[in-house]
């Protein structure tokens, strides 16, 4: 097998030299390279170059001293090498001999003249100074650990509560079948009351700056659920035995048993890919279904409010006896679907933003 010299392209900055070697599938080991003072020898072993599979070697005697450590990265098409100069300054040429070797050429993808390189260097220095300045101005939050501990415990309690509801309803469904639809409220209402009262903290947390989520999306979701739970199910005994209670509670708990553990792990800086995917994907079908189930509960409650006159608004005798609360609920139905649009849009943007940031990290 022949020993050949590969094509090498070079560029420089004030502190570094960049070499690009046109070899595919080449393996460069630290032991295969010799670099001392001004002289460098690279032995690539077997690689695929312009003349096929051969052993490729090249050497360079630099114009000025360089540091002994090198960095290299091999791809399927080339090998990129970075060498640091001993002294930060601009070189008139790369090699000690004035006549450049035949295998050496400028790398125009990286090439900058001296003035452009100085501007790039100055920009990097300014960026470094600005970053240090910003970091020095930003004080570490002395209560950060306490805040994370509080958020972790809150999400843990909510996860356990909704998990209990989900497991209870699932077990009863398998044992009793459709009969479990009609006593859901009496078996799980106390835990649902507790979880939804706790959920009010999700409206307060953004106001205190404890979380980055928006105030209005949280308020819309929490207020909407509490109207269904406390006003429609809690105040109307005739609604408590209806099958719609099962579907509302089951959809709520299914969403939350994935959402709260995701936030728990985020509090400790951890992530499970499957859980992240479920958290940002499962709500796409379940959230609209939950709103539809809530709307069915509202519609079923309208004649009951008309009959019982519960929460009716008294009116002057000229206008009539009272204004039924059902009219308020009809307006609420419109607002419910408006809230669905706002929340769905917010969650979808959140999902897109997260996966875009992941792609940037990968690239």
Automatic annotation (TrEMBL):
SUPFAM superfamilies, sorted: HSP20-like chaperones (SSF49764)
Reaction(s) catalysed (UniProt annotation): a very-long-chain (3R)-3-hydroxyacyl-CoA = a very-long-chain (2E)-enoyl-CoA + H2O; (3R)-hydroxyhexadecanoyl-CoA = (2E)-hexadecenoyl-CoA + H2O
GO process terms (BP): fatty acid elongation; sphingolipid biosynthetic process; very long-chain fatty acid biosynthetic process
Keyword Transmembrane found: yes
Chain ranges of the CS domain: 3-95
A single cellular component GO annotation: endoplasmic reticulum membrane
Intracellular or extracellular location(s): Endoplasmic reticulum membrane
Membrane is among the record's keywords: yes
Assigned protein family: Belongs to the very long-chain fatty acids dehydratase HACD family.
Name of the protein in its database record: Very-long-chain (3R)-3-hydroxyacyl-CoA dehydratase
């Amino acid at each position: 097998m022949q020993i050949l010299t590969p094509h090498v392209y070079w560029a420089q900055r004030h502190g570094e030299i960049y070499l690009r070697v046109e070899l595919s599938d080449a393996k460069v080991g630290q032991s295969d390279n010799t670099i001392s003072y001004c002289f460098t020898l690279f032995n690539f072993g077997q690689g695929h170059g312009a003349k096929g599979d051969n052993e490729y070697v090249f050497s360079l005697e630099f114009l000025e001293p360089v540091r002994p450590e090198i960095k290299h990265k091999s791809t399927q098409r080339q090998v990129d090498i970075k060498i640091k100069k001993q002294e930060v300054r601009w070189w008139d040429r790369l090699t000690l001999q004035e006549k450049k070797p035949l295998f050496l050429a400028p790398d125009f993808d990286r090439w900058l003249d001296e003035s452009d390189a100085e501007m790039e260097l100055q920009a990097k220095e300014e960026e470094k100074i600005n970053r240090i300045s910003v970091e020095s101005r930003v004080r570490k939050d002395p209560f950060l650990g306490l805040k994370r501990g509080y958020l972790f415990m809150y999400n843990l309690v909510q996860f356990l509560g909704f998990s209990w509801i989900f497991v209870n309803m699932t077990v009863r469904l398998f044992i009793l079948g459709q009969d479990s639809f009609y006593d859901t409220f009496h078996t799980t209402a106390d835990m649902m009351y507790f979880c939804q009262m706790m959920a009010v903290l999700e409206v307060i947390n953004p106001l205190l700056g404890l979380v980055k989520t928006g105030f209005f999306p949280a308020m819309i979701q929490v207020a909407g659920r509490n109207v269904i739970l406390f006003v429609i199910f809690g105040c109307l005994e005739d609604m408590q035995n209806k099958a719609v209670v099962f579907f509302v509670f089951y959809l709520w708990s299914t969403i939350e048993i994935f959402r709260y553990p995701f936030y728990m792990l985020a509090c400790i800086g951890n992530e499970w890919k499957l859980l992240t995917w479920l958290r940002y994907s499962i709500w796409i079908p379940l959230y609209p279904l939950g709103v539809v189930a809530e709307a069915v509960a509202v519609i079923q409650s309208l004649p009951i409010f008309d009959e019982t006159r519960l929460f009716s608004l008294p009116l002057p005798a000229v206008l009539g006896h009272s204004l039924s609360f059902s009219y308020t609920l009809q307006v609420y139905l419109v607002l419910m679907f408006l809230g669905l649009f706002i929340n769905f849009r917010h969650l979808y943007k959140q999902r897109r933003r997260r996966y875009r940031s992941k792609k940037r990290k990968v690239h």
